[in-house]
């Protein structure tokens, strides 16, 4: 009976020991090892477990696995734990552990499991856990995250002279950061210090983003390479605040800061960062509630207008990301209840240029609403549910909306764009023509009609598809014309717009391959040549367009060859010509399946893997099968690759 009693007591002791170890494991799982959540009492209890109470189990020594009793003076430590029951029964447990029979005797009697082995393993585990806790504490950093300052802001006069004259030009979709708000932020920042990023993170982000953009905007094309890394140092000042903005941003200034960073990154080829910044801005808009009409009811008029401008700028940005890269949008979904941004009346304008910039956001917002409808109603997933008649009706309705939008623009804006437009106006009309192309591309790529009605509908479908192709090529020609009028704009501003005329070159290239004998084929070869001439002009001005120019020259030469080969079709063709024509037929078939020309162009001018792979596969027979090294498209200059400007992360 006495022996059975000791065995029962020993089992209870092991169960309590297991419970304490489970508590320790739970604490380690639930608490950050670098936090202060473990109380002094808990730590003392665990230390007792490690050093004293576990010594009751003894060490297994010798071949006969006997339990040593040399640690008897330390056995009281286990009994002094916070567990009252363990304290009351401590003496019995100690005696039981000390008097356990050798393991060999337990095995001979068939008892399983041996308590000595269990307690030894548990003790070893507890000691290891305790040692690991001490190791973690020795190497932990319990401080908060820290933002790094890569470069101090310059003296106030230098900042003012560089940024103030171009603050409107740096905001290509419309004024978000007004001249007055810029001056107010500057006053506050220079009172706080040229490296103060703590008291107002949003202000610090906005000023550094604008200063970085202004440096590149106002630098000559020849000097961009030399000043680029310095400008990026100021942008890194801003980007180091990014985690704080998305986790602690609780007002409209945080949205303005994210938009300022996005504006800088849009003029680079690092599309992945651009998409992350724009998505963060859209999510913060939703978090604050700026997409709800009720949000504005309690605000005074100036404050409400500021918030509306920020909402619509973010809306336009999300639609642009959707248009360019096919990324989904959280804001641009369904009809928005927020009123469009106001424009100043002609009688209240301080200057025509100021009025033009304020109207730009309104025009861009109205166009973005139509662009969003195109994605909702004419995306490839929706087209399979529309018959030909319904598709024609939807396409006709949206095209009428686009034309009505254009007709509402002031006549002077249309004239300016035709002759000497700036980058912001060019982007506005690039977006318009790309939207027209997107509408008609839906008609070109109709799903196959039902066999029962296919015979009677085939002539109608072919005629509709041909008209759609003509409309697409007309918009493509217009985009190349717009590009030719921008030769005097800073290269930093122009880079992000070059994807539009490049997509136009691809469309005209296909039109020439489809029908080299057409009345417009020779003129289209000439328009591709016009874009090549535009790039050559940029190159002479010090712009790094060598890779893009080389690719477009090759397309121009091949288009000229295709045109001349048809004219000489009656003559005997040599082997080289026959092989070349066969390669062109393969390329023509690939291009015929393209549904989004802008995304095809961006595959060569961004760092999105999916777009890059599709672009390389499409033109592999012309540009070569070897994919360029790195993560960027083959036409991207080193200047616009973020990692070449030390925007990178050390291992």
UniProtKB/TrEMBL annotation:
Pfam families per record = Fungal_trans (PF04082)
Its GO biological process terms? DNA-templated transcription
Q: Which GO terms describe its molecular function?
A: DNA binding; DNA-binding transcription factor activity; zinc ion binding
**Acidic residues: compositionally biased ranges:** 82-94
Coiled-coil spans in chain: none
Q: Which keywords describe this protein according to UniProt? A: Nucleus
What InterPro entries does the entry give? AtrR-like, XnlR_reg_dom
Q: Where is this region: Disordered?
A: 49-95
Q: Specify the taxonomic lineage.
A: Eukaryota, Fungi, Dikarya, Ascomycota, Pezizomycotina
> Where does the record place Polar residues bias?
65-76
**CDD domains tied to this protein:** fungal_TF_MHR
| UniProt protein name | Xylanolytic transcriptional activator regulatory domain-containing protein
The Xylanolytic transcriptional activator regulatory domain is annotated at 217-319
């Amino acid at each position: 009976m006495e022996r059975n009693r000791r065995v029962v007591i020993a089992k209870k002791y092991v169960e309590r020991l297991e419970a304490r170890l489970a508590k320790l494991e739970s604490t380690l799982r639930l608490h950050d090892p670098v936090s202060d959540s473990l109380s002094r009492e808990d730590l003392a209890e665990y230390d007792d477990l490690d050093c004293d109470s576990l010594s009751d189990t003894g060490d297994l020594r010798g071949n006969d696995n006997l339990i040593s009793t040399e640690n008897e003076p330390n056995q009281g430590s286990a009994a002094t734990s916070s567990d009252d029951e363990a304290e009351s029964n401590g003496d019995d447990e100690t005696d039981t552990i000390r008097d356990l029979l050798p393991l060999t005797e337990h095995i001979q009697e068939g008892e399983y499991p041996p308590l000595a082995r269990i307690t030894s393993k548990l003790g070893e585990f507890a000691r290891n856990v305790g040692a690991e806790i001490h190791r973690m504490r020795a190497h932990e950093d319990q401080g908060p995250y820290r933002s790094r300052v890569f470069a101090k802001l310059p003296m106030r006069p230098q900042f003012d002279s560089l940024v103030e004259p171009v603050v409107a030009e740096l905001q290509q979709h419309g004024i978000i950061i007004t001249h007055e708000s810029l001056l107010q932020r500057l006053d506050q920042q220079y009172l706080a210090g040229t490296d103060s990023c703590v008291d107002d993170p949003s202000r610090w982000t906005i000023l550094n983003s604008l200063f970085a953009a202004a440096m590149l905007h106002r630098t000559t094309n020849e000097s961009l390479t030399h000043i680029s890394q310095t400008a990026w140092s100021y942008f890194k000042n801003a980007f180091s605040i990014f985690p704080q903005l998305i986790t602690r941003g609780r007002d409209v200034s945080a949205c303005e800061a994210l938009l300022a960073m996005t504006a800088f990154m849009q003029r680079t080829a690092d599309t992945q960062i651009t998409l992350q910044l724009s998505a963060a801005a859209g999510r913060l808009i939703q978090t604050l509630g700026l997409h709800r009409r009720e949000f504005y009811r309690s605000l005074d008029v100036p404050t409400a207008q500021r918030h509306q401008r920020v909402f619509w700028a973010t809306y336009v940005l999300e639609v642009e990301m959707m248009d360019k890269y096919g990324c989904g949008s959280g804001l641009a979904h369904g009809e928005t209840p927020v009123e469009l941004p106001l424009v100043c009346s002609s009688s209240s304008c301080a200057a025509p240029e100021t009025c033009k910039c304020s109207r730009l956001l309104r025009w861009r917002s109205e166009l973005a609403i139509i662009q969003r409808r195109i994605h909702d109603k004419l995306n490839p997933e929706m087209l399979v549910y529309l018959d030909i008649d319904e598709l024609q009706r939807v396409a006709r309705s949206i095209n009428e909306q686009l034309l009505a939008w254009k007709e509402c623009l002031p006549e002077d804006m249309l004239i300016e764009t035709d002759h000497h437009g700036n980058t912001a106006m060019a982007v506005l009309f690039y977006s318009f023509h790309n939207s027209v192309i997107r509408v008609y591309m839906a008609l070109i790529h109709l799903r196959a009609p039902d066999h029962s009605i296919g015979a009677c509908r085939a002539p109608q479908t072919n005629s509709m598809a041909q008209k759609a192709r003509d409309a697409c090529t007309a918009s493509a020609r217009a985009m190349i014309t717009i590009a030719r009028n921008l030769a005097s704009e800073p290269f930093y501003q122009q880079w992000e717009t070059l994807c539009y005329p490049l997509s136009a070159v691809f469309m005209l290239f296909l039109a020439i391959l489809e029908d080299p004998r057409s009345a417009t084929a020779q003129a289209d070869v000439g328009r591709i040549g016009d874009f090549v001439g535009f790039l050559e002009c940029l190159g002479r001005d010090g712009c790094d367009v060598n890779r893009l120019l080389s690719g477009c020259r090759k397309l121009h030469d091949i288009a000229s060859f295709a045109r001349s080969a048809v004219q000489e079709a009656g003559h005997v063709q040599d082997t080289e010509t026959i092989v070349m024509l066969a390669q062109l037929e393969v390329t023509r078939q690939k291009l015929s399946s393209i549904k989004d020309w802008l995304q095809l162009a961006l595959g060569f001018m961004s760092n999105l893997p999916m777009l890059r792979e599709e672009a390389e596969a499409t033109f592999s027979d012309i540009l070569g099968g070897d994919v360029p090294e790195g993560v960027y498209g083959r036409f991207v200059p080193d200047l616009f690759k973020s990692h070449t400007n030390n925007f990178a992360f050390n291992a």
